[in-house]
Amino acid sequence: MAFTLYTLIQTAILCTNAIAVLHEERFLSKIGWGVEQGVGGFGDDPGVKAQILNLIRSVRTVMRVPLIIVNSGCIVLLLLFG
Amino acid sequence: MDFTAPQSGFRQRKLHPNMRLRNSSVDGSDGSQLFEDTSGAGPGSQMGNRNKQAGPQADAFAGQTLLSDPMSNLAMVYGSSLASQGRDLVDRNLDRFIPISKLKYYFAVDTVYVGKKLGLLVFPYMHQNWEVNYQQDTPVAPRFDVNAPDLYIPAMGFITYVLVAGLALGTQNRFSPELLGVQASSAFVWLIMEVLAVLLSLYLVTVNTDLTTIDLLAFSGYKYVGMIVGVVAGLLFGKLAYYLSLLWCCAAIFVFMIRTLRLKLLSEAAAEGRLVRGTRNQLRMYLTMSIAAAQPIVMYWLTYHLVR
């Protein structure tokens, strides 16, 4: 129950890491969540599944490099300060 | 009077509400329309600029009467011009990260509005018209429309909740000053997580709505009123009173959220109560219900440990 802002940051980093490790061709295509299934319908209603796939793909594209930096920083800080 | 056609684009509409409200005259308040100008410095940037330009000159005249030495006079003028430049820089940069002008709209409240809104939060069953009034494509300031969301009640409610939590913990001899900070950050984190969850679900269901993030923050902050009522009743009259008042406030917040969000999230036809088939409307209805149902859950979660 004792949530602090630090736990919020930790949660955010962990969740973003979890989304970033979903590999495109080894995993997502195998379960039908690949990039080609995301751009299906051309109506004005993309649907929930297409939105989720778009979100996963964009998070992976955008956050790849910042996550490298943040994770390295976290590792160094945890090694130094426990 | 600025009667130009409403600008295209959502962002432009949201960026200019203060300009529009300032230029058009509503209800005869003098000066800026969001706030009555009770202090010497005006709240709008136009008035602020005029004041800033008048500032160094006024300082210069004061310097001349106070010190007859021209060198210190010069230093004072230079110092005040530096200060105003610094303030300009800070204002401009701060406005990029935290939209100060947008925030001012949410704090433009008065006592009548706060009273009516609190009554609405506890007893929303008699209110008929839940639509937000618009004035030339921008929402009217909260002091003129009781349906508009504001940030004053959530902010005050949050602070009062932290204080009441401290009081409740004190009556159980579990109080220490660090616990106030723990309660505050805990409730704040829950608020942020709830707003993020609502934003995520709004994105997934592709709802075209004009609900901004600050609107969602305001709606999520309205539940603090019910929590405070419950905890105070529990402190005064015991556990049964806590459960009864919490039940009443949960039902009230549920109805309030559904009636407010219905007009914003659902399509026009569904919002009027007609049964519209289709997965999209069904999804939107489920989304509205789950947002409203999350409020009582969080209300109970954040207060049950305070009343033993």
TrEMBL record, chain A:
Cellular component annotations (GO), alphabetically ordered: COPII-coated ER to Golgi transport vesicle; endoplasmic reticulum membrane; Golgi membrane
Extent of the signal sequence: 1-20
TM spans (from-to): 63-81
BP terms from Gene Ontology: endoplasmic reticulum to Golgi vesicle-mediated transport; protein transport
Record's subcellular location: Membrane
Top-level taxonomic group: Eukaryota
Family classification: Belongs to the YOS1 family.
Functional note: Regulator of endoplasmic reticulum secretion that acts as a key determinant of brain size. Required for secretion of extracellular matrix proteins. Required for correct brain development by depositing sufficient extracellular matrix proteins for tissue integrity and the proliferation of neural progenitors. Acts as a regulator of the unfolded protein response (UPR).
Descriptive protein name: Immediate early response 3-interacting protein 1
UniProtKB/TrEMBL annotation, chain B:
Membrane topology per record: Multi-pass membrane protein
Transmembrane segments: 151-170, 182-204, 216-236, 242-262, 283-302
Region feature Disordered, mapped onto this chain: 1-56
Domain of life the protein comes from: Eukaryota
InterPro entries: Yif1_fam
Residue stretches of biased makeup (Polar residues): 1-10, 21-36
Keyword Transmembrane helix assigned: yes
Entry's localization field: Endoplasmic reticulum membrane; Golgi apparatus membrane
Alphabetically ordered keywords of this record: Endoplasmic reticulum, Golgi apparatus, Membrane, Protein transport, Transmembrane, Transmembrane helix, Transport
One of the record's GO cellular component terms: Golgi membrane
Database matches in Pfam families: YIF1 (PF03878)
Entry's Gene Ontology BP terms: endoplasmic reticulum to Golgi vesicle-mediated transport; protein transport
Similarity comment: Belongs to the YIF1 family.
Annotated function: Has a role in transport between endoplasmic reticulum and Golgi.
Protein name as annotated: Protein YIF1
Organism encoding this protein: Solea senegalensis
